[in-house]
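Fold it.
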Amino acid sequence: MRLTRIFIIVLLLLGGFWFITTRLDHRFFGPRRALIGSGGSNLPGSSSPLELTEAHAAPAYDAEEQNNIAIYKKVLPSVVNITSTALVFDFFYGNVPQQGQGSGFILDKAGHILTNFHVVDGANRGIEVMLSNKRRYPARVVGTDKVHDLALLQIDAPDLQAVTLADSSQLNVGQKVYAIGNPFGLSGTMTRGIISSIRSIRNQDGAPIEDAIQTDAAINPGNSGGPLLNSSGEVIGINTMIASNGADQSSGIGFAIPINTAKAVLADLLRYGRVKRRSLGIVSYAIGPDLASQMGLSADSGVLIQRVVPGGAAERAGLRGGNEQAYVGNTPIVLGGDLIVAVDGQQVTDPGDISAIMDKHQAGDTVSVTIVRGKKQMTLKLILGEAKDTNI
């Protein structure tokens, strides 16, 4: 009997709870409001339901986005992350390993990889290359070119995908460019911009980079050695440095070595492990219009031969150096030598112009050199030698 009373009381309690939560809630407080995704209590402070509009399908990419995506998918498998390890001396801890990171790109299925010299410089404890599929391989240095800040590596890996190299001689300010690399160790990063300028600069060691590609595409530490691409996904340059005013990060001014410069030295790197520097065998000085007028020269500008290197190409071809000591400000120069005004028919006004032409030749090639000697202009044939000293 007692159990029956307890059962009846429980039923009454359950029935009362049901009546209050269903009937009275609707009668006195209005209809229950739905929460996002499922039934539940009313939203605090809300007097209306929250309704979201969601897309039924992913939006179609416009033509520019499609090209960006296509370039990334095409080139990413060819871009590598390079880690170099060097043993350095620490006053407190002795010899300790130190690592640096950069980027590079695959040139062929044999595993040759192009990067910057400064990425692998001093790596006395090995170089490791990580592909886009996260596989890692030890790399050996095939050759280096400190002057152009280039290094050629090689790994032994299967199924490698090589980049396509463009012609960097026909670039224009304003054209789109893309950089893919590993800035701050963030592998597989792509940035986009335009060519801001094409100018001659000097790298961190003071060596000239002729026709360097200036870009506003974000280039940061770790991008060094990676490819700069055109809108077809072809390599037009090797990202090498940034103008950061000490901030060590992108300021919208980055520079890339033109790929044609790399093409000119790759054969030497592969064959000799270094670049056989092409040389006229002269020590020179750039002459501008004002100085040419003061010196009474019959040309407005050119490259004055101060002296010829004994046994060099210029001496063998009969070019002459100067014999009269003079000063331009506090800088000593030697007057009286031949004035070079053109090489291979291209006008030259400073040693950088000659260096740019030399990059298109190999040691042993024959070039024509147009000079002014006194009041007479003449053109001589010259067989390029290999630089032995700081000369062109």
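The CA atoms of residues 264 and 359 lie 6 Å apart.
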